[in-house]
Amino acid sequence: MSQYTTVTQVKTKTIIDLQKMKQSGQKITSLTAYDATFAALIDRAGIDVLLVGDSLGMVVQGHSSTLPVSMQDMLYHTQIVSRGSQQAFIIADLPFMSNATPIQAAQNAALLIQQGGAKMVKLEGARIENIEFMVRQGIPVCAHLGLLPQSIYQLGKYAVQGKDANAAENILADALQVEQAGAQVLILECVPAALAQQISAQLSIPVIGIGAGVDCDGQVLVVYDMLGISLGKIPRFTKNYMQQVDSIFEAIQAYVQEVKECQFPLAEHSF
Ligand code: KIV
């Protein structure tokens, strides 16, 4: 067979691959992506999950929060990330007020999946009714607990959540409830490492942490943060991977390797 007739089949990751990784103790790697070029680079570096996060409102659009991000924005960015990606599992965010009711959540999730190419949608908070309704329609759901950026005006500041015993118990209870409601992945943001360890051990679904310590089943970072190019304050839980290498591709490869080998996050990146 000549080189012109050889077709390289790239297998796209599925939820089954992520479940198997949790069961076998292999760490899941994830980064955000907002466009086709970055998606392609990150995908080729072997990342497991591409997250089209509504953090794009801050790092791409220059807003001071994620609240202005619209469904139209999310759909556009999910489409262009899908175009650049080959093997990674794509999760797309339901932005602020796009999932106020179960029907609204399901309709917007359907857009991100049918027109955007996402394999799963993520929503912030323990919105049990919305999760149950979407799951009943066959929509794969990722829940997001801990620090909820879409609630920034209620919270007042971006801060570690679940620090006292009562708050930690509530987050654990929410985590158990979202799993029970049918969520197949949980993202835990900015919680004490000990709490994240407990939640990851108690849940059978993969738990991907950001600022949640090394004992989660996987790690996610905002790609511009780990490349050291985000405007404003870089959170303590991230690491600038461009300091050790000469190219973006190598920086992403280094991140993938460190997550897989439990060398990231260290105590200095955790709470
Ligand atoms: O929008 C985003 O990038 C996220 C991550 C911070 C988990 O939700």
SSE topology:
Layout: H1 15-24, E1 28-32, H2 36-44, E2 49-52, H3 56-59, H4 71-84, E3 89-93, H5 102-114, E4 120-124, H6 128-136, E5 141-146, H7 152-155, H8 165-181, E6 185-189, H9 193-202, E7 207-210, E8 218-221, H10 223-226, H11 248-260
Parallel strand pairs: 1-2, 1-8, 2-3, 3-4, 4-5, 5-6, 6-7, 7-8
Helix pairs in contact: 2-4, 5-6, 8-9
The site of 3-methyl-2-oxobutanoic acid (KIV) has 12 residues, from strand 6.
Which tags fit this structure?
eight-stranded parallel barrel; binds 3-methyl-2-oxobutanoic acid; 271 residues; alpha/beta; 11 helices
Helix content: 25-40%
Class in CATH? Answer: Alpha Beta
Q: Give the number of domains.
A: 1
Q: Which ligands appear in the coordinates?
A: 3-methyl-2-oxobutanoic acid
CATH superfamily: Phosphoenolpyruvate-binding domains
Shape: globular
CATH topology: TIM Barrel
Proper CATH architecture:
Alpha-Beta Barrel
Unreliable stretches covering 5 or more consecutive residues: none
Strand order of the largest sheet: 1-2-3-4-5-6-7-8
The gyration radius over C-alpha positions equals 18 Å
Main pleated sheet: 8 strands, parallel, barrel
First-last Cα distance: 55 Å
Q: What is the count of β-strands?
A: 8
Please, how many helices? Answer: 11
SSE string, helix = H, strand = E? HEHEHHEHEHEHHEHEEHH
Average per-residue pLDDT, rounded, comes to: 96
Strand content: 5-15%
Structural class: alpha/beta
